[in-house]
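Bit of a strange request maybe. I'm writing a small parser for structure token strings and I need a real example to test against, not something I typed by hand. Could someone generate the tokens for this chain?
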Amino acid sequence: QVQLVESGGGTVQPGGSLRLSCAASGRAFSTYVLGWFRQAPGKERDFLAAITGTGVITYNGASVKGRFTISRDNAKNMVYLQMNSLKPEDTAVYYCAADSVRVSINPTYRGQGTQVTVSS
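Reply from user aminoacidic:
Good idea to test on real output. This should exercise your parser:
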């Protein structure tokens, strides 16, 4: 069982940056694949990035386009999403996710989400 709690969302102007954090609790944290996805109102969930316990990273290139960076700290049970050059279309609720094999938009575990709004 894994519990995930996101933080770091907020409102930022276009071109700005935010760093999302996700604190995880539960056993064997380092064995889980962790990731992020988002969901905007009226739209489907959008997978963003995932990172394995050994640091292998997968990005959804179409959504991330080199602007987002995922990282994790196994010692602190944390996963992060650094978001740069934010655009209004990045506005969504961002979710942290965990799974034993691979993270998808329907993960076994997810947090409650944190709102990111990009607006001038």
